[in-house]
Queue: 4 jobs
Job 1
Amino acid sequence: MSGKVNKSNKKIILTVLLILIFISIYMYSCEYNDLGLFTTLDGEEETGNGKNVANELDIGSKEFFLELKEKQKNKNPLNDINVRKAIFYAIDRKRIVNELLGEYGEVLNSLFTKDSYYYNSSWSEYNYDLNKAKEFLSKAGYVDNPLYIIIGSDDRISRKTIDKMIKEDLDKIGIKIWILNEPSKEWYQDCVMKGNYELGVWAIKNFDGSSLNFNFSSDKIPIYKTDENKICENFYWYNNPDIDEILMRAAKESDTGKKKELFKEFQDTLASDAVVLPLYSRLVSIAYNNKKIKNIDISIKNNKVFFNIENWILPNKEQTGEEKINEIVVGYEGENYILSNPFDLNYINNLVWEGLWEINEEGEYEPILVEEHYDSLEHSVTSISSLEVKVILKDKIFWEDGSSITSEDVKYTYDTILENDSIVNINEDYSKVEGIEIINEKEFNIVFKENFKDWKKLFGIIFQKGSLEEKDINNFSTEDIVASGPYKIEEYVDREYLLLKKNEFYFGEAPEIDYIKILFDTDINNLISMLKDGEIDLLSIPTDLDLMRDLKENEDLNLWVEPGNMLEHLAICLKQKEE
């Protein structure tokens, strides 16, 4: 009898235990949004139909997501090109562009803007195709088991939108995404620059290809940064000897036709390797008073709002009389405008300063302060016997005070730059210049320490001799500026406005507009209201679809929208992680 009781008790106890186990499992799964049974992700534990239990999981907890991710056998899944291509095919880039840019945007299939001479649609093969995405993921061995990946970006609204849509797209092919949005400083310093990410979203600035070497050459991976090798921005940890060779040849090539072919090969190779996926070009949006200004032409190359300002006309000038001083008022979002870095030739700097050369829309250097005929570095520098280039300045080029721009000014500028370590850190190529040797007032030699082709980029600005004495070249005030451009500083009221006056000694074609007033305001909505009320004539506006559509309906305003040279893209980190 006691034996039967014991057996019965055992059955009851066993039943209770099974129930308790079932309840605990059920409660555990509910806690994680029906995540299912705890399981390994390496294929060792499968259900009867051969599929991993975690295949259909909906991850609702960061800790649990990371725990599942840690169980993946392959700690470097993105090193598999099939995984990368699966991701690229699974992302609906048109949907992203439509959501963020509407009718003003389009999918970018290049690492150059649509208006660039070097544009090539190398990424057009990655049209949204879930079947292809699943095929590539299957090739990588992720048929039964889900793949767990983290995508990161800074915390701006557009990036969060991109991350969310990418997560939704990749979920359709069985790739589970956790989104990491960090403040900009933390994201770039802690994640991007150290390679502590898997998928990332950010933008690179590119128009003529001169910076691509810093982004994709293997010797520009951050760990190789030294005092001699300063700009290392290959945050993809991408290493391809073919790409290194192409970029090296492009840097030495002066023929733009041949350079175009090299950049095509570069983009085709990069697209084939599936390292970055271009999404779109950020828009440059300008609204202006069409009754006040005509013939506006804006360059995307350096975001030059006043590009070809000599062609701008004021259609009502005849009505106000030739003697009346004319002025346009430009809104500027910010407390004030400080010329803190004269080497950042943005749209205001370009009105007051000129350099020896300026790069055009095709990536070629055009002479500004120099004669068109001079001894070419293409001949001298490629010869080992000479690292000197003779340059001849134009006649009748002047500073705003009427004094001539001379070889002394050029030497003074580059002596000052080469003595300033912070400037050399901005662009390591300055360290390749030995110095300037004056021949006479209009002629001088540039002496180089070593050969390199893209040397003209270093001569985009010239200062008047003596203008920098006891002044910080990195922290200009308006009083420090002696202009050589079409305008000079007339007046500056801190936190209120900057007034530019037409430079009577400017050597180029004189613009029609006598004064440009830059009006500061930290409230963009206030500036927009002033634009609509006719109190300001031109304003760079944010990419806000509702705002852009509203302004387009305004009969008094023209809306000018073009893709700019900041290229938003999905990045893949190829940094090897320990298994």
Note: DSSP finds 17 helices and 15 strands in the chain.
Job 2
Amino acid sequence: MATERIEVETRRHQMFPVLSAADIGRIRRFGTVRHYHRGACLFQAGEPGPGMFVVLQGTVSISQRDGLGHVVPIEHQGPGHFLAEIAQLSGRPALVDGHAEDDVETLLVPPDQLRALIIAEADLGERLVRAMILRRVALIESGASGPVLIGPPQSAAVLRLENFLGRNGYPYHVVDATQDADAAALLEQYGESELLVVCPDGSVMPNPTEHALARCLGMVDTVEHEDLFDVLVVGAGPAGLATAVYAASEGLRVIVVDCRSFGGQAGASARIENYLGFPTGISGGALAGRAYVQAQKFGVEMLIPAQVLSLDCSQAESQGQVSVQLVDGRKLRSKTLVIASGARYRRPEVPRLAEFEGRGIWYWASALEAKLCAQQEVALVGGGNSAGQAAVFLSQHAAKVNVLVRGPSLAATMSRYLIDRIEATPNISLRPHTELVHLHGEPAGGLNGATWRDRLSGGEEDCPARNIFLFIGAVPETDWLQGCGVALDKHGFVLTGQAARGGFPAKTAAPLESSVPGVFAVGDVRCGSVKRVGGAIGEGAAVVALIHQHLASAATAA
């Protein structure tokens, strides 16, 4: 208990550090002095944050407030404290309210100057960033801020948005209308909707899409980005984030677009244990979250979620730029483009599969899905590393995990450390030469069982699994490249380097460059990639040198 108390106190000290007079002196050149009278609002949940405040005199009260009007006090911060969390790095909407308890004097550091401060004052910046990350984690853990999801806690609609918000590191909380009178009244007011979402500004949306919710929360902007970027990255998985971090840290202007969340498929991994430098392992979400913050620290502009509709390469050689059209109608222009769109989950040919997606059929295994499997028998299809990580993670929650693989064993497709762990876990049952053939249940009630077949004997077996996890590989996300001349292999992966020839007369592309000059590919979407997080990050770092070479040659030609 003493050790636990010390850890809590240490974490709190890091979360709410007191800045010295010398620290504040170093910050002054990045900010301006602002005065607020007693009762004034410095920032408000749901409204774009003005930046980081450093309290010079007086006291500011910080509280969480949701769209239903519930207010939870967090902290009273006085002289030497700073008021900010990760959202202030990019001027996104605040997640908490801040009010002056008396007359207050502050130093306001706007987002662009906050990023400059963090880079220029490395040791001080480290303390600020650590505190901002811990504050965001605390907001997520508290479940008292952000949007309110009103509906049955384990319904497919609620789980869909929980997964979306969780993958994007955004706090939220779920209210069961049967247990909350205010929520029940609101649900009744909106009639037949299974799910209501109340944003921090009080607006209510019946069963919104992920993109509609993101707009309501201010997660993605709606302004026109008319400037010419140096680097446009499509995809915010490990390869895309690595590209963004290295490019922006070297002074290039970078924008990243992803249709769902940062982290890609790796972001859904419960634990990655063979990534260099993390001997005890790290979750994919934590690794991706750190990279996402790191990219913002260097000034990368993020459009997540925002979906790319098409790529225009018609001016790649003549004007030295390409452009992408977003589904929302906006257009982005850049001198170079990095295809890091990864791959989407492959769906097996199983009857009625689509009926149960989100209702017992899952393509990832996060803590949300694991809770649904508590003391149940589940099935997992696949033999790669992501399947192995998911099986080990689920075994800590489920009574039994059946791992179905089409081949004779896991040896050809999975890392040895994962095979050893699976063999040592008593409630994981490996079923070789086995395929999923039937699903049982009705969509309204969810999956209530499945049938699989032994491919050698033809014998079939029923299982009461109400949750089945599919990890059978992926299909490259390259449909948006059609009509642009980017060469693909027969499976749809982007050809690069010697395999990619473009122009007339034909010339070999640089390593990681596609058949279109200035268009590069990294990570899982690239033909020949190793399909490992470490490999994807390495390609993201390596491509930046090639981008510099391309920009230099284009400038010389001009």
Note: The longest strand covers residues 331-339.
Job 3
Amino acid sequence: MAKIRFKRLIIRGRNLLTDFAKNFEFKFTGRWMLYSLVIGLVAGGGGILFFYLQEAIELISLKGAAGFYPPLPGGESGGSESHALPSMFNWWFFIIPTVGGLISGWLVYTWAPEAEGHGTDGVIKAFHQDRGKIRARVPIIKTLASAITIGTGGSAGREGPIAQIGAGFGSFFASKLKLTDQDRRTMVVSGMAAGIGSIFRSPIGGALFAVECLYKDDMETEGLVPAITSSIIGYTVYASVFGWNTIFTTGDYSFQNPLELVFYGVFGLLCALLGIFYVKIFYGFHEKVFAPLKIPKHFKPAIGGLCLGTLAFFFPYILGSGYGWIQMAIDGQLAIKLMIIAAILKVFATSFTISSGGSGGIFAPSLFIGGMLGGAFGGLAHNLFPDIVTQPTAFVLVGMAAFFAGAANVPVSMTIMISEMSGSYGLLVPLIFTSTLAFFVTRKWSIYSQQLKNHAESPAHRGDLIVDILRDIPVKAAFKAKPDLPKIANNLPIQRILPLFADREEDCFPVINKEGEITGLLSMTTLRAVIGEEGVGSLIVAEDIKTKLDTVSPNDNLQQALGHFLKTKYSSLPVVNTEDPNTVLGFLTYHDLITAYDEALIKWSTDN
């Protein structure tokens, strides 16, 4: 008796658990949690490997051979201590970036040409145009080439290579698991988020950047949750090795004077104008200087490196990512004139490095440009209006966010990223205000050439466009009303049904019972299957061969009608009166639906 009760208790408990589980999607959630975990672990590990590799190359080249020791940001053991400006006229600057460009160019154009330039653009292109597919060798070549480029002084950053490391693994992982294109794209976004969130120590900002940088006016919100999960895992792995501190150390900034918004507004416009100049110079060098050169592409990064080295011979602070100089600007250790010159020269230094085909990201150089512009503007504003602009170095952080928010069309993510990278949340209002203003002014331009305007332009969401267009078209706008349609009685034999189809273009009619209610449909296809059998003409009636009733109403939309077509496989559907479902107004054919869609698509294309 006790055993029976125990078994009943187990069965009851199992049933309760089963009923409880029906309220959740454990299979879906568990699957994506696992995917995000693996992607985050690999991307975080890739970030660690890339950092050490870049540091090793820099130790041998810039520090060892040239004796050039750039300052470090506060979170990487640099900070508030005074740092002397580097000595000028170092002849090694002609050699080291040139050799770095030569090796990087050979690696990229020999093994993975798609790894040239700033890697984030390659990830964006793979997402939109290549079904999320990234060749497995691309992250490896990008890592090596970018580490060499940055380690030998190239004006580039870590964002591009680490984005391709994470995204490349996400693509590889999805392909090995034989997932759908949609899932592969989501894993590419998750990988990019994990890489950027880890190496910039910005888990939330990295995830937002990954879903925002794909479009100018849109976000890939479907991938946001997996991206956040992967980014947090990647950040945790990376920070476990390098510490949990932020990249930059800052003072106690705050926004308390409404009059400062006037200065932030003017500064936002300056960031936008410099951002447009940056994009034009960047792509101008690529299209008008390096692309027309009649030499193998392998050598073009070396020429870019030589141009950079020539500039660095006179102004060495434009070498590398420049985080240490940003830290000095935050600490108020740089002169206004120096920061103005540095901001302008960094535009050209970055163009020499990456527009020539060199490998590296454009995020760090962009932060340098915006930070220097902010430091100079804040210093000038403080000198002129000391009672209003009381924290001039706050403009360094705001400039970092606003400049790149405008140049790359990423206002939301940049606000969060700069807050996380600096640990300073007291400037959220001016960060958002200035970044949004810069974004509005520069929407026509973007440093990411593969960035699309919105979902409608992306092949990844072509199916969404079809659904959106069909959803806006009612059935009544597509079908032809025919009130004289014949109705077939349930007991009508097929030999008397055939003549009904003879003079009609329709291939389907409703079947009704003696009360006049529609009970099913009878198509010519069904009739053909039985009329060849001898002697059945008077024995088989409509009731015997009718198919399941499925109708649409005039107020339904074509997206709903498409669902009915796909479910039933019918070539036409009866359109019934909304108030009286037994009154057939006509038939909507699949051809009617396609015609209406084509016309709407042409109109949409013309309007846009």
Note: Residues 28-242 form a domain with the Clc chloride channel fold (CATH 1.10.3080.10).
Job 4
Amino acid sequence: MTTAAVATPPNAPTPSIGRDLIGGVVVFLVAIPLCLGIALASGAPLMSGLISGIIGGIVVGALSGSHVSVSGPAAGLAAIVVAQIESLGGFQPFLLAVAIAGLLQVVFGLLKGGALANFFPNSVIRGLLAAIGVLLILKQIPHLFGHDTDPEGEMAFAQADGDNTFTALLSTVQDILPGAAIVGIACLALLVIWPRTPLAKTLFPAPLAAVLLGLGISEVFRLSGSGLVIEASHLVGVPVIGQDGTGWADVITTPDFARIADPGIWFAAVTIAIVASLETLLNLDATDKLDPYKRHSPPNRELLAQGVGNSLAGLVGGLPMTSVIVRSSVNAQSGARTRLSAITHGFLLLGSIALLPGLLNRIPLAALAAILIVTGFKLASPSLFRSLWRQGLSQFIPFVITIVAIVWSDLLTGVLIGLAVSFGFILWRNLHRGLNVIREEHVSGIVHRVELGTQASFLNRARLTEILDGFSKGDQVVIDARLCDDVDPDVMATIRDFIDESAPQRGIVASTVGFKDGYPVKDRLQYVDWTTREIQESMTPGRVLQVLKEGNERFASGRRLNRDLVRQVDKTAGGQHPMAAILSCIDSRAPAELLFDLGIGDIFSVRLAGNVVSDKALGSMEFACKVAGSKLILVLGHTRCGAVKATCDFVHTGGDVAAETGLVNLASITDPISHAVRDETQETTDRTSANEAFVNRVAEINVRRTIEEIKRESPTLAAMAESGEIAIIGGMYDVVTGQVTFLDGAEARLAEAAPVTADVS
């Protein structure tokens, strides 16, 4: 049999036998009353709880892959144990069911059933932790003051309902034992103060200090003959082997193998196996979150270990066990680093029964109650509530409901309720967020893109129908399935009805894209998302500027339109009708089509270093406007321009460009820009490339000079601009923010078309 290795992170702790031994002692002290109390709560012999604790520590501890988890009798199973013992007619038939349940858990582990834990939301697991913390606090407050009459046994918290836990809280006020209260309050104070003292940095754990303090105070009361003496009923009670003729054979119970064929036995075994496995996986995941080194425990190996432990427990008279969050949390907080602490606690349980019953029976329950109250507060800390609140209602509400449900019912019921609430939020998100409707502003007008999520299930049908019914005559609609892995037949039928019948009857231009082969709906694009002759002729310079402005806003905010560039290549192959010509720099950070979120065929792009004018550039722009029909010329400079920086330095030093660089044609770029450098007269002590503000001002002046040169050197373009056929404007692109600023109030002068802002809903 091959088991998964334990994943150890780079920050794995240095092994420390001392810390592990101390952790084992602390867990042992907490485990004794838990084992006894859960046995009483389960209606089973007291020794059955201790037997499970011993096996959970030694056997499961040795086989488990978890460093922090500690196993033992499970409070969450107490109600099931009570019911099964009653239905099977005794404890021995029940033990047979436990042994079989262990074998089933081994099978679960071999079949990799540990993956089940990955399907539980983090909010539910955190709710489980916090709920157990709340239960610990509620159940231990009475014991803190000496009210130890809880019928479920010391520190058991399986059935925390209003008839016991909260009644006990009220009864505590009237039934305070002064001696026990002094011990409990003193130990609680020590645990609260301990982290704020230098002692917190020592190897000595605060819980052990609290136990010793409580034991010392109790012994002082006893030896002094004080009236505050704590009676035996308020101290730990361990069965004493050898007393009154009690031997090991008298406390070990074997299963009733004669009932092996009884269907009731197998039903009980399956029930125990499923519930114990589920509780183990939940507690194991929660325990990993408590591990200060954040190591991962292999769940399949844990199921194997628990299965072996439960089979053995069933054979020798023990209760069913799981990984237990209370003991595990105490183990982690005590500084234990490896599973040696769990094994140590198991041997201590075994040894204490045989060798130290007298000493153990002197420890006040109030001292242990103080330890568990502090442990409970750490599990249900206010910071945990704040953290879940910040994550949103979809995390906070299942978290809180899980806590309330566990406190008022039991662990399994509470977790199931929490899962149901989490599933409800998943359904809500699928109903309302499984579809994304994007309103896109193309050159041809508004296109409504309905994006299907990764899974379009029947849950999305109502929302999709509502969206499609909201469109009206003349709307352009695209149903986009490119992100969708699977489309439910009900959703597909709704789409098909809209495309084939509803949309044509209502005058809606409906398109589809991204549907896989085999679907009854094929890709069909009917909307126009490139500049056609008709669109170009309808454009004004002001409208073109508005399109550029809106495109840059989308680019800078990361909301670029979805475009089928291959389709645009095909549609523009027969002719081009761009709406603008843009003279920009060759800088790799300033590609005009991207900056203005444009498609293929929407603009003529003229690129020269420093966006300077040449005869060839003028000829290109004349063709763009006079022949091809473009309505706007944009001279686009940008911040931190390399050509401008170089020119600033050349002007400052007065050097020869060709001689200094070896680039004989570079002067054709720097000479025009040098006029802009000299035109910049603002007072400054640094007129070199090191002064970024100076460089950016020169770049803007260069844009203005280029505009004037275009008008001076091209009578054709100047006349067209004068008549209003075209506009020649300038802009500056910020390479840091991605935003374009248009110069000289161009937006106000040319805003002839009412602005239409694209948005995403």
Note: Residues 1-10, 150-164, 752-761 have pLDDT under 50 and may be disordered.
